[in-house]
Amino acid sequence: MINFLNSGFFTALTTILTAFVAIFLYYWEQRKKKRDAAKIIIQEIRRAEDLISEYKEHGGYKFTKKIIATNSWAKNIHYFVGNLAQDEVDKISTLYSTGEYLDTIIAKVSDHTFDEQVKSYESEVKQIVAGLQNPITSQQSTSGGDQSGAQVIPKIIQRAIPVKIQIPPPW
């Protein structure tokens, strides 16, 4: 038995067995990666479909949500090219590219709407600040420093800072 364990045949046999185990583990890991990537891609597609159907139902879109949050398809397409037909690959790629394009358009619209809203509030604040100095100084000079001048400031601040800002959708 000791002669067999020390023989070259036993060493070759263990080397071959180790190689088969390593190859099996490699393919098993690749299969697991492919399965996980497929689950993530399916989840992303379902999420995009949910956002689109939510938009269709409510007629509005929340600018905080992206249609394509992460593009797992671009990172993992190599796993599926051999298993999917060319039409299926094209459809999934089109979905992802369209979703990313819509995300950039929505971001631009959101930025434009926000810029317009900020400009209108800036001009309103400038008008209020310009009018702020006159009432306070005139009230303080006429009232002799009592608290009537302090009541003017909160009213002006309430006008300058709206409690609820609603930005209508640009479309």
What does this structure look like?
With 171 residues, this protein is an all-alpha fold. The protein has helices at residues 2-5, 8-58, 72-80, 86-143, 148-160. The longest helix is centred in the last third of the chain and has 58 residues, at 86-143.
Features:
mainly alpha; 171 residues; single chain; 79% helix; 5 helices
What is the gyration radius calculated from CA atoms? 33 Å
The succession of helices and strands, N to C, reads HHHHH
Q: What is the percentage of strand-forming residues?
A: under 5%
Largest sheet: none
Which blocks of ≥5 consecutive residues have pLDDT under 50? 134-150
Shape: elongated
How many H/I helices?
Answer: 5
Oligomer state of the chains in this structure: single chain
Q: Which structural class matches the secondary elements?
A: mainly alpha
Q: How much is the average pLDDT?
A: 76
Compose a concise summary of this entry.
With 171 residues, the chain is mainly α.
